[in-house]
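Researcher: Structure prediction, please.
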Amino acid sequence: MTKATDPLADAAAALGDRLNMAFMGTTVTDGRGRLLATATGARTEMGKIGTLIDEATTRDTPLEQKLSRLGRLLVVIVLGLCGVIVLAGWLRGNGFLHMLEVGISLAIAAVPEGLPAVATMTLALGMARMARMGALVRRLSAVETLGSTTVICTDKTGTLTENEMTVSVLVVDGRRVDVTGAGYSPTGTFQVAGKSVEPRSDAPLALALRIGALCNDAKVERTGGRETVLGDPTEAALIVAAEKAGMDRAALDQEYPRLAEVPFDSTSKRMVTVHRTPRGAPSPTSKARPPRCSQRALVGHGRTGWHRSRRTTASSGRRRTGNWPGRRCASSVWPTATCRRAPARATTPRTWCSSAWSA
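Model: Predicted structure follows.
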């Protein structure tokens, strides 16, 4: 979702249409800006959700409602039959009190005392069956709800995939460089044709990794042995790839301080940052989609080689970025998604390009 500072024509627009508002709990993945707080606490949209949850009342499940209706129906039928029996016996000459005792006894015997137990056993059998299929249910009432469900709508991220990206392959000066490791752990090696290479001693490879880390707004925080990503997973994967080469993000920011930035947007389809080099000269870096790259300067890598490698990686469902210094294409970086159960298959792969021009 792209936000803007332009005023809205409709003051009563729905929450999803308020493009100039950022609500509490929103994660900013790209760009920078200053926000003006218009509400706090329970007056925020998130606070209103909490208030609605507190005011919500529990309702009986459909099964409980049906059992309640069945119980009331049985009571009416039993009372009617008992009344008929008492009246018929009294008319035939039996004592009224005696027939009343008989009617009360019949009413008590007709009450289905075992019905709740039978319903509980049925739900327990359903819970056991779901457990054998790999679904754990904490409450018995949830078994009935799941049994009545016809369509389940779920978000892929966090359920089918882990929302993690990992740089797995780089192409630098026509060489394929495989990157080992998975997730956001800074552990891995760089290999060319099965042989390990030292990234920092390889100038084109080091340049590609440095550009990916500098033209980047993501952060990877590690606390208690766990990695937390703030920002876009693809940008986080580029940071981790640079860390595998021994490059520290904080040290790079000090060595190449950022002077200016043009955030990524859907119109230009690129992000540009300008850094001061150790020599004091400004150096711009940029991320853009491959058409933007190919329209500029694909000389060293060649347009034919670029498009051939792009088709190859697209067939495997990889995202793609490309880095080049000056007017020569230096490399392309392809981070792939990490899934819990099976690799994500992209029917329409999104391809990206990261570029840099020397000053």
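Model: The longest helix spans residues 62-91.
Researcher: Thanks, that helps.
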